[in-house]
C-alpha cells in the first residue's frame, strides 16, 4: 500500500492510484527501482534458471557444424548442404543422399559425423545411397557412425532384421503395407514379383496366422 509518510517511496509514485500504477506500461528498470524503493530484494528462480530453452535438432546441428566450420576456416555456404529431414531404421538414423555432398566435408568427416549424430540423438548414423539397378536392388547405404549395419526394425507389428548396408528397406510405403495385409486373399494364389525383405508377404502371413490362432479362419 502507498503511505504518504513513507519516505522511501519514489516521488513519482506519490498520489498515484494503485490501479493506474498496475495498468500503466512500465519499463523493467523502472519497475526494479520501484521494488527497490520498497526495500525489495532479488530472489533467483532456480527452477527457471535450470530450464533450457528447447532447440530443434536442426538448430542444434547447425550451431555445432557452424562452430566446426569456423574453427577449420571453411566456407559458411557449406551449411546449405545440411539435411532438413531424415528417417529412422531401427536405431540407425538415415540421412538423405543429397546432404554433405561437397568434397570439402571429407577433410572433417570424423568430427562431422559425430556432431551430426549428437545433434540427432543417434546411436548409429548412415547416409542413403542409390539403389543398385541389379536383379536384387541392393542397398548402398553408407554407415557413418557405428560398427555394422545389422538392425532390427519394427513396423506394423512385424520385426524386420537385416543388414541395412546390403538389403534395401523402404519405409515410405508403410500405409500400403498395412492395407495389403488387411486384404482377404484366403484361397487365392498371390504372387509377389519382388518380395525383397517381405514388405507385403509378411503382413499377409501375420494376418492369416493370427486369424487361425484366434479362430477367425473361414475353414
UniProtKB/TrEMBL annotation:
EC number: 2.5.1.114
Reactions performed catalytically: 4-demethylwyosine(37) in tRNA(Phe) + S-adenosyl-L-methionine = 4-demethyl-7-[(3S)-3-amino-3-carboxypropyl]wyosine(37) in tRNA(Phe) + S-methyl-5'-thioadenosine + H(+)
GO BP, one annotated term: tRNA methylation
EC class (word): transferase
Domain SAM-dependent methyltransferase TRM5/TYW2-type positions: 86-219
PROSITE patterns named among the record's database cross-references: SAM_MT_TRM5_TYW2
Swiss-Prot/TrEMBL keywords: S-adenosyl-L-methionine, Transferase, tRNA processing
Pathway membership, UniProt: tRNA modification; wybutosine-tRNA(Phe) biosynthesis
Keyword ATP-binding found: no
GO molecular function, one term: tRNA methyltransferase activity
A GO cellular component entry from the record: cytoplasm
Entry-linked PANTHER family: TRNA METHYLTRANSFERASE, TRNA WYBUTOSINE-SYNTHESIZING PROTEIN 2 HOMOLOG
Protein name per the record: tRNA(Phe) (4-demethylwyosine(37)-C(7)) aminocarboxypropyltransferase
Upper classification of the organism: Eukaryota, Viridiplantae, Streptophyta, Embryophyta, Tracheophyta
